[in-house]
Design goal:
The protein is an all-alpha fold. 54% of the residues lie in helices and 0% in strands.
Length: 221
Amino acid sequence: MISRVLIPGILLLLVALPAHGEYEACGSLDNKVGPFDYRTNKGQLEIVERFHFTPSVENLIKGNTGPLGGDLSYTLRASPNHARALAAMANLALRDHTDQPHGAKFTIQCFFDRAIRFAPDDGTVYMIYGTYLFRSGAKAKGLKALETAEHYSLDSGNLHYNLGLVYFDAKEYDKALLHAQKAYALGFSLPGLRNKLVAAGKWRDARDANPVQAGTPASSH
């Protein structure tokens, strides 16, 4: 049995996931194919992706063997933490305004529950979950999930951009600015967060915000 790893901050995150007594509804992680960890076993998913995670499926255009939700379900049963398939399922649920897209074996909350049970230290799963929660209106829970992703040393432009958006929404502008600067330093290109900070009069270039980075020697102690 795969157990959850609990660290400070994750306890609050788990309130958005099915309660322990509801794990049965989210299904066992046992599967005829895999399950494979997306971080380390991508090569073993080649056949699954060829038939069930085609570009048309990932881009939510049409299913390959049936409904979109069915192909994404098959992929996520073979690899519960398949980051791209998990993001696609979340986008499908948001697009169709449903907790359980047509053809999907489980609800979107269950797919995140299964991903976290399978790979409780995968920061990318928490990042996708936090983004989904924020976009669906559960902003406080979304922030907890994104902070958990950061705890697992996930340092990506996408993560910092989304953290910046959540902090901006909470009017914590210093934190929003910090994560915006990190996102753009990592090459993230969407200007939305910068534009929000500029409009609020809170944007500063990283060099202006941190004199040490601008070349001023830090004081020694």
